Amino acid sequence: MIRAVITGSGSALPKDCVTNADLEARVDTSDEWIVERTGIRQRYIAGEGETTSTLATEAARKALDDAGVDASEIGLIILATATPDHTFPATATQVQQALGCRGGVAFDVAAVCSGFLYALGTAESLLRTGMAKKALVIGAETFSRILDWEDRTTCVLFGDGAGAVVLEAQDVAEDGPGILATKLHADGEHKDLLYVDGGPSTTGEVGKLRMKGREVFRHAVVNLADVLGEVLADASVTAADIDWVVPHQANARILDATARKLGLPAEKVVVTVDQHANTSAASVPLAFDVARKDGRIKPGDLVMFEAMGGGFTWGASLARI
Ligand code: ACO
Fold first, then answer.
1. Which of 18, 293, 313, 319 is nearest to 163 (CA)?
2. Which CATH architecture has domain 178-320?
3. CA of 254 to the centre of ligand 1 (A)
4. Which end of the chain, N or C, is surrounded by fewer C-beta atoms within 10 Å?
């Protein structure tokens, strides 16, 4: 059977690491409050010359090296971001140009923190139709540029970064590697709980992120537990079969609460929110790359990806590595 198999991963972070103590000098907050409420200890913030496309390109190059794939072999690039370099063209096309890929398909998807799940699901479907044989799926963000640095309830929560995977269509055995099941959802009902108060067709300004964190938290735990259950049922596996969960890294307490709801031990959850904060669409591939490169995630492991973000959008995907 033809499946989309993850054959490489890569990630990139800006040079500047900003600790909670650094933020204390800038905002009315404390390391104690941030760690206790979120688990975040530091984040990376893009400086001059660092943009969503430069971070995405670096992550993509590392993923290609890791997979042993040449950029010229890539027929499809899907880049998930809510912070593109420009309103248009799509940031994916700039990454395509920087990598030296020609002639394939390249586009962005906007599903905020669920963007990587949306991009992965879309790429997997397109690979299985035969539209392309090898794809790059990237999550990349520079959220620091849409934060209101006067708003302590949001500015301490986010960071910048990028993660990428190479996906290849391969003919594999039933128990072989590849993406086994994906479920994606959207519900525009709660837009006002998490949004950016600008845009090209409204104010003409880029705008700043606005969030009612407590309410987002409540929806996140319920929606994530539901979609994880759907994916497990679809793939006919139980939570006990999963080797690793790679969740969207929004808040350590959401990760704990979701794992508890599913009866998953905390040791099976990859946590990088302490190091990177919430990097939106970049967080899942960034955490996956960290856990793959440090040897936790190994070939043959069953890995669950999950995310929830603005929209709301949410989703989960189960893959055998
Ligand atoms: N430093 C110090 N105090 C703060 C800070 C801060 N940075 N921010 C808020 N406070 C204060 C508030 O003013 C409030 O004070 P008050 O009681 O005197 O009014 C108090 O802390 C509690 O504020 P709450 O907002 O009720 O705190 P809560 O326990 O809900 O934690 C948080 C806030 C961390 C944002 C939490 O609600 C959360 O993580 N929500 C989920 C958000 C999230 O994950 N969003 C992303 C998902 S989608 C995506 O990734 C885009």
1. 293
2. 3-Layer(aba) Sandwich (3.40)
3. 13
4. N
Q: Can you spell out the DSSP letters for 13-59?
A: --SEEEEHHHHHTTSS--HHHHHHHH---EEEE--TT--HHHHHHHH
The domains of the chain are located at 2-171, 178-320
Tell me which fold the domain 2-171 belongs to.
Peroxisomal Thiolase; Chain A, domain 1 (3.40.47)
Answer yes or no: are the C-beta atoms of 121 and 315 closer than 8 Å: yes
Which residue has tokens 């975040």? 40
Rounded CA separation 137/32 (Å): 36
Residue 190 Cβ < 6 Å to ligand 1:
no
Cβ of 195 below 6 Å from ligand 1? no
Q: Whose CA is nearest to atom 10 of ligand 1?
A: 153
Instruction: State the number of CA atoms in the 13 A half-sphere of 213 facing the CB.
Output: 15
Whether the pTM exceeds 0.85: the reply is: yes
Does residue 276 carry a catalytic annotation?
Answer: no
Ligand 1 binding pocket includes 40 (Cβ within 6 Å): no
Q: Is 248 a catalytic residue?
A: yes
Catalytic residue among 113, 223, 251, 276: 113
At how many degrees (to 10) do helices 252-262 and 31-38 cross? 20
Could you give the angle at the alpha carbon of 38 between the alpha carbons of 84 and 143, nearest 5°? Answer: 10
Measuring from atom 44 of ligand 1, which residue has the nearest CA? 250
